[in-house]
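Message: A physicist's question: would you kindly supply an amino acid chain plus fold tokens?
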Amino acid sequence: MGWRIGQDRVYIQAMTPISIAIEDPRHPEITQLLNQSRALMQELFASDENHFLSIEELRSPDIRFFAARQQGRYIGCGALAIRPDYGEIKSMFTDPKVRGAGVARAILDRLEAQARQLMLPKLMLETGDLLSHAQRLYTQAGFTLCGPFGEYERQSSSVFMQKILSKTSQA
């Protein structure tokens, strides 16, 4: 996405198409994105409030790791952790240079499509209370607030959300 500044307006150039596919988080560009994400989380939250997965954990058989590419460059990523009764959204991050262009929403939609393919009844996630843009993204995608789940404990910095995918699942 590019910006062009006119006399009294900012023009957003049309974004070229992106592709989203299962990728290896060890790819150097993807690792760089993940490291940027971790650095931001470590800057904003105490170490016991960070719940990101290691690159090796993102390669686990129960994880589907996706990355978005545009013009041959990786610009975002996200993962679906497959749990017994739900899918968990993990490692969502978009290159700051393309934020606001719909990349995160496209990745989230791809993760949801994967969860539906796997017939998971719901998606769940934990995000930080200071990450208002992320919270807005999830709310716009149909997620609602819920309590802690899985191995998470209640923390003042955590916001827990869920999205029911199947009418037969319980909230």
Notes: The mean pLDDT is 87. Residues 49 and 66 are 24 Å apart (CA to CA). The radius of gyration is 16 Å. The beta strands are 3-5, 10-12, 18-22, 63-70, 73-82, 87-94, 122-128, 144-146, 158-164.
